[in-house]
Amino acid sequence: MRFLGLNKLPIAQAHLRALNNAGVNSVKFYSATAEPKEPVVRTKTIPGPKSVELNKKLGEIQSTGSIQYFADYEKSSGNYIQDVDGNVLLDVYTQISSVPLGYNHPRLLNLFKDDKNIKTLVNRPALGVFPGKEWPDKLQSILLQVAPKGLNKITTMMCGSCSNENAFKSIFIWYQNKVRGTAKLTEEEICSCMVNMPPGAPELSILSFKGAFHGRTLGALSTTHSKYIHKLDVPSFDWPIASFPQYKYPLEENVAENKKEDEKCLAEVADLIEVYKKKGKPVAGVIIEPIQSEGGDNEASPEFFQGLQRICKQNGSALLIDEVQTGGGSTGKFWCHEHFNLESPPDVVTFSKKLQLGGYFHNDDFVPKEPYRIFNTWMGDPGKVIILEEILKVIKEEKLMGNVASAGKVLKDGLLSLEKEFPNLLNSTRGRGTYLAVNSVNGKVRDSIVANLKLNGIQTGGCGENAIRFRPALVFKEHHANIVLDRFRKVLKSL
Fold first, then answer.
1. Quick check: is 377 catalytic?
2. pLDDT tens readout for residues 177-199
3. Using CA atoms, how far apart are residues 468 and 93, in angstroms rounded to an integer?
4. Cβ-based neighbours of 490, under 8 Å, separated by 6 or more
5. H or E element in which residue 361 lies
6. Catalytic residue among 56, 178, 377, 393
7. How many angstroms separate the Cα of 226 from the Cα of each of 11, 31, 293, 351?
8. Spatial separation of the C-alpha atoms in residues 322 and 319, rounded to whole Å
9. 32 pLDDT exceeds 70?
10. Is 238 a catalytic residue?
11. Which of these is catalytic: 83, 85, 322, 381?
């Protein structure tokens, strides 16, 4: 079975090869409409020789162990990333789910031809102290327009880790305000917090889940449980860790068993909250990803999330949904938690990646009464909001949410077909929209598949113990999905 007639070379690709034969190593593509028609791999290995040389150079001044290859972003276009050795890869990983419109989208390239935008970019302010005159309108007209329903406040940050870190602080402050009521701060609280002791530095906790990833700063790292390499040698808080549901697939054939898994995990959450309350470390908040990403693309049902929200409300704990990777539309809704039909909005929703800057949405209850309690120098970046504004316009004008649904269906149906064709290699296809994953039989086979996909022109990534994850841009279309599936099948046949 072939997913596309890729044996028929498109005119544009023929032109590209003609240029190559003439000694032209690369072609510049500056818009999504001018992107290559298919991947082209020129080196026997990736990284190629130029990437290897640059890695040695960078290695003299910085750790380079995580680098896969060096990209040429001037020559990357649309859904295709080009490396310094001239390899042109169809990118369904997109900088770990961070590129909403692909590379060098013409609408974004034009943004900084505007003098006003240039001045916003150059004069980067300390937003918590000296915001520009346009900042309130920008937050209202851009970020609050995509706010999760029911959350009317936003705190901007730089990245996903610091968004979660400061969201924890907001939750702790909110929790202590409930405990304190109308009482004023005591001298004991003021003095004890300066030496990291109660009551000013209270023994509170955040409950997280096995397999979770919420960042690498100290508080966020205490709630991260995806890989030991992130946590080794770094002190962590004694905070509760619950089991995240582990489902059997296909979901429709394992309804009863997966329901029991939900019930077991929810009971564990309730028990842990009670245990930590008795330990004198009450759970002020619960943090969870709508789909555990780094930990293996683990899903949980709407019923699980509904039950988790009820437990949080019963125990006076805030529910923080970490949408750093899932936010921005790739699951078919702008916020993945919108799939769950929650009884009320989550208390806090963190974001970053596709939204260009970081931050968290919340309601009035999570606004500190005193200044400087949630603060850093930059508190986000107005230049990134300019980019986000244009991204949101393109999403709406080009109906990219509908595109996610159609391209995602082709990709998911194709993965299910490959799973049936190669049951000894693949299983457990899952996900929403284009936010998809499939398991291989073990980690060694997974790593081999990912490496061979790259040599066949497809940039993807692994997660968890044995999953292959797909994170294409919102401009990823059905014909791109067919190219991925065609190359994927070729790799599986070779194994």
1. yes
2. 999 999 999 999 999 999 999 99
3. 10
4. 456
5. strand 358-362
6. 377
7. 45, 37, 9, 19
8. 10
9. no
10. no
11. 322
